[in-house]
Amino acid sequence: MAGYVLRRLIGVIPVLAGLSLLSFLLLHLVPVDPAEAALNLSNPGASEEAVQALREEMGLHEPILAQYGTWLYKAVQLDFGTSLVSHQPVGQELGQYLPATLQLALSALLLLLVMSLPLGILSAVYKGSWLDRVIQFIVVSAASVPSFWIGFLLIYLVSMQLNLLPLMGRGDWTHLVLPSSTLALAYASPLIRLLRTGILEHQHQPYIQAARLRGISNPKRMGKYVLKSALPPVITALGITIGHLLAGTVIVESVFAWPGVGRYLVESVANRDYPVIQSYVLLMGTMFILLNLAADLMCAALDPRSRLKEGVLP
Amino acid sequence: MKFKRLSMTLMLLVAMMTAVGCVSSSDGQPKGKSTESKAEEGLLTMSWNKDIGPLNPHLYAPNEWFAQAMVYESLVNYGENGKIEPSLAESWEISEDGKTYTFHLRQGVLFSDGTALTANQVKRNFDAVLQNAKRHDWLELIAEMKQVEVVDEHTIKIEFNNPYYPVLQELSLIRPLRILGDAGFPEDGSTAEQIKAPIGTGPWVLKAYKKDEYALFVPNEHYWGTKPKLKQVKVKVIPDAQARVMALQKGDIDLIFGSGQLSPDSFKSLQDSGNYQTAISSSVSTRVLAIHSNKGATADLRVRQALEHALNKQLLIDHVFYGIERKADTLFALELPYSNVALPPYDYDMEKAKQLLDDAGWKTEAGQAFRMKDGESLRLQLAYNSEEHVQKAVAEFMQGEMRKLGIEIELIGEEYQTHVQRQKEGSFNLIFSETWGVPYDPHSVVASMREPSHADYQAQSGLAMKPEIDQWITEALISTSEARRAELYKQLLTTLHEQAVYLPISFTTHTAVYHDRVSKVEFLPMQYEIPFHSIEVRP
């Protein structure tokens, strides 16, 4: 097992290197470079000489691969450079915004689990009943409307009409409820559906029938056998969903005036702040890979067959 | 049976969680309730779409204009009707040749940290800006500045290369020539990257700040002028326009001020609700379409004139702007310096527009949706900034109107930076542009027409008299004769109007929407200042 984890961890390095190179090259393909962007924002515009001077100051006159090399050399020493806009170290700036996003993502994850596990199980157990239909209706609706719309709807109903929760901004836990519900609602649908399908698929497998014949009670059969087989795809999906919760908060952050990393990224893209964008991509890439790995390990723990497939079992 | 019990338990659990969530959230409710902004006396809460930035007086974005103007002051102020008023300088003299300005600083002015304003400190600020001159090369004043000299503790002399006439206007700008206190300068003395602390002489001091969340300003107790009535100003960052409206409706904020902070639709609906005070300023700048005189069909003067006649501006003003922006027929509002030139407007006249297109050879043909000439159909590119909803609305209106005339308009909506790039490259037939407002209008806008990196230059590039136009501008900026300058401006504005390289649409305005407890919201002449000094609030 330890060898397997180590092999997977080593596999992360080329993936990250490829990711950073690709994002670096793509960034430089985007029209308008940071020097021009900075001067464009300083409305009214500037001359070509001013752009050239700023380019040199920012080190943009060097060949792209040389720039990438410099960046990589520093990045492996955990120096992610300084923002071209604020002149602050990128690591420090990300550190300022990340807690808000982590807080939002974690509470959304909690809500997501609380919502999707019971609903998924219920709709499978009562397949075809009115309850199942209601849940399916909610699932399809939540998946069909954009999250900013859900956000506004929640603000309008809960905060403005009922006056139960604060409108926006970051503060105590009451500020968390609406934005994290909005985020959770957007991602709950696929999980609920996956869980439902998984349970339905395994419910009538011969080994479950055998368990039933052996007189194992309904809840125990569900908990110990059906769920155990139905969960792995849900866990894999969850791993990716957590990544999305972290990286997909931009719109929710904007609607709820949440000072998170998503808004920081959007602003940095508008300003073509290369070091920030590059570090963000690397950070999110690493998170996705680690979450994926964690999900795989959990699946392996639940299902010995997947360990066999990966050659983990001796 | 047992199976059902499990499900029932699960269902109960969900129901309970929901209930608990609701109950406890209503417990926590008073904290987050709308009373927040009213609790403290003399507190005005305003929303803004961005963080205020690091408050560096010598730099541009991400510093927000209005916040810089709260903390820092310049030597002179731009007052009503363009009158230059004393500020940190109490009086000044201009030499005969118009090249030397001597400023007498106001006595007893203190920075917010209690240190005194001296001529040395002013020089230090000017030098810091000059050190970074490349960054400011769009501003003629910096290029013209030869040297800054301290005469005595309260007198400073600035020498210029040429008798550049708008010196005082440009000194009044919010950036880059406002004065930072000694404690604000970093060790190396350069403000080109950052400052140490926002110490100014202005009426406000930054008291608390959380990046991307809020900024809290309190009055500067050392301020030399009339102190503001407000005790605190809180600027809340709310990036989404619709969210700002909801925050106002809930009472989380007292005021939404500025241009672009509210869509015309939101303004209208808030106004119609009757629950709020609303106000619209006088003209701030001009919203125009620049027409490329050297590209495709618009290289023909008759096509440009047809476009001018074909736009029903009044309909646009009534239905897109709801009267918030006023109709414009000239590049600059007539009340601006040197801009009161009698120019016959291009009236809305479809027949005339059709005639002009026919004359230009663009004819309607059977079976063709658009006008044709030499086997090509009449197709124009109209570029807009996709982040500006108003531009998009105007562009779509234009597309519909021109279709009636047999012109196909291809809309190109791009994010800001790419849009600016397109302006510079001149790859458009029509592109949105805006003048810069006072004190830039008209002289800075006119000066920039000579720069190839501006949409104006690109639009004018096909005119036979472009070299003369540039000469007139250069001469007007350094002419010492008032009459000659007025004559040059007249010549310039008339030519641009006759050549139809600008299609003026509307004069932009500021809007303000606020709760009844707020009063005395006045509009200031400079586009980016917010009148916190006059605003009052009731508890």
Automatic annotation (TrEMBL), chain A:
InterPro entries: BPD_transp_1_N, MetI-like, MetI-like_sf, Opp2B
Keywords: Cell membrane, Ion transport, Membrane, Nickel, Nickel transport, Transmembrane, Transmembrane helix, Transport
GO MF assignments: dipeptide transmembrane transporter activity; nickel cation transmembrane transporter activity
One matching Pfam family: BPD_transp_1
ABC transmembrane type-1 domain span: 98-299
Domain of life assignment: Bacteria
Protein location: Cell membrane
Entry membrane topology: Multi-pass membrane protein
GO cellular component terms, A-Z: plasma membrane
CDD domains for this protein: TM_PBP2 (cd06261)
Keyword Amino-acid biosynthesis (UniProt): no
Main location: membrane
Transmembrane intervals: 9-30, 104-125, 137-156, 176-195, 230-257, 277-299
Record PANTHER family: DIPEPTIDE TRANSPORT SYSTEM PERMEASE PROTEIN DPPB-RELATED
Matches recorded under NCBIfam families: Opp2B
Subunit structure as annotated in this protein's UniProt entry: The complex is composed of two ATP-binding proteins (NikD and NikE), two transmembrane proteins (NikB and NikC) and a solute-binding protein (NikA).
Membership in a protein family: Belongs to the binding-protein-dependent transport system permease family. OppBC subfamily.
Name this polypeptide is given: Nickel import system permease protein NikB
TrEMBL record, chain B:
This protein's record includes keyword Ribonucleoprotein: no
Cellular-component GO terms for this entry: ATP-binding cassette (ABC) transporter complex; outer membrane-bounded periplasmic space
Pfam families in alphabetical order: SBP_bac_5 (PF00496)
Keyword Signal: yes
Residues of the signal peptide: 1-21
GO molecular function: heme binding; nickel cation binding; peptide transmembrane transporter activity
Gene Ontology terms: biological process: nickel cation transport; peptide transport
Residues in Solute-binding protein family domain copies: 83-454
UniProt entry keywords in alphabetical sequence: Signal
Superkingdom, taxonomy of origin: Bacteria
CDD domains named among the record's database cross-references: PBP2_NikA (cd08489)
NCBIfam families: nickel_nikA (TIGR02294)
Name this polypeptide is given: Nickel transport system substrate-binding protein
Native species: Paenibacillus aquistagni
